[in-house]
Amino acid sequence: MPLSIAAAFARPSYPVVVIGAGQAGLSISYLLKQQGIAHLVIERRRVAFAWREQRWDSFCLVTPNWQCTLPGFPYDGDDPEGFMKKDAIVDYLERYRAHFDPPVVEGVAVREVRANATARAGQPWAGQPGAGQPVEGRYIVDTSHGTIATDQIVVATGGYHQAILPAMAHALPASITQVHAIDYRNPAALPPGAVLVVGTGQSGCQLAEDLHLAGRTVHLCVGDAPRVARRYRGKDVVAWLDEMGYYDLPVERHPLGTGVRDKTNHYVTGRDGGHDIDLRQFAREGMRLYGRLNDIRDGVAQFDARLAEYLDGADAVSESIKTSIDAFIAQRGMAAPEEARYVPVWEPGAPVRALDLANSGITAVIWCVGFRSDYDWLKLPIFDARGYPHHARGVTPATGVYFLGLPWQYSWGSGRFSGVARDARHLLEAIAGTPTSC
């Protein structure tokens, strides 16, 4: 059961405060509790909120269930090769919470975290009942329900905070409904008519498929996101990459280095047991594909002419992954069934550069163009010019301040169920080795 707000704020300080109660926050809480380290987990809404409220109805994982390995609570279901749907993901996290009863207080928003300039000097701190008594703690956590001091903070809020809407969204006619992917739920929730989906990362491709399978006319703006096959030579590609050590590759050893953090994820799906997402096949079935959306003027969408290049590029990435799997099989002398390579099933004709939205019957636009991080509330000098935290495996230059659950924080799995446990254990060592006064 979550802590009551009154119980959480009954004490003025904690040795460790964890901000966020998703899979990252719960993971570090489990390890802290195992070590007997007192702490408080502050959750703005409720445990697993993003999975509950910010995913569409048919959402499911794109990684197999066996990769769900939270600390002390690996996947225990009867379908390890399957892909958990949204409700099952929420259930998994709720069962994890029940498994070890973390000290979580829900419905409390963190407004500001700042250095505590006076506590170390033994000066009274007036921000909490009992003022006049010195309160130790390097940092002050100011929340919607009170203020707490702490020596160590784990920021476990992920890296996707604010949905991006491009400036051209304001140019859409008022008659067209527009939503970000975070607010999409199902085809029936949109007005009747055709739908323009902007973006072909994982969300864009999966939402386009969701609408397409529901019989909606879909217009899809394609970008340079890569794709990956679901299965190859007898196994899920994720299983091959796991055997090949890809998921253990530290970000510093990745060919792109930390630049991989800015790359769009490969699109694939776990829907209906998992399969490839082939935009060319969608086009054969009636989906309309265009290049990247450049502008909207007077109700007319304008695209670049690079659709063929984007499709070819996505296919090339998928085939290159297969080539690496072939090489791995050959090097190990492994027995694996042969499989023919992908042959494109559709080729675009002359590029369509403009589309009149009203004449095309488009009544809704879904923006699948990503998120930006927001750490304005963290008033500490630990960020680069783009607002990304300086850190080494989640350990920042500020004593006692850590991040957990960032995409590619250390490896591919850092922001996922598969790698957050390893990152949390690394942070536990740092936390346990840092002296506290609370």
From TrEMBL:
Keyword Oxidoreductase attributed: yes
Limits of the FAD/NAD(P)-binding domain: 15-239
Record keywords: Oxidoreductase
Entry-linked InterPro entries: Auxin_biosynth/cation_transpt, CHP04046_FMN-dependent, FAD/NAD-bd_sf, FAD/NAD-binding_dom
Residues making up the signal peptide according to the UniProt record: none
Organism superkingdom: Bacteria
Protein's name according to its UniProt entry: MSMEG_0569 family flavin-dependent oxidoreductase
Species the sequence originates in: Robbsia betulipollinis
Taxon lineage: Bacteria, Pseudomonadati, Pseudomonadota, Betaproteobacteria, Burkholderiales
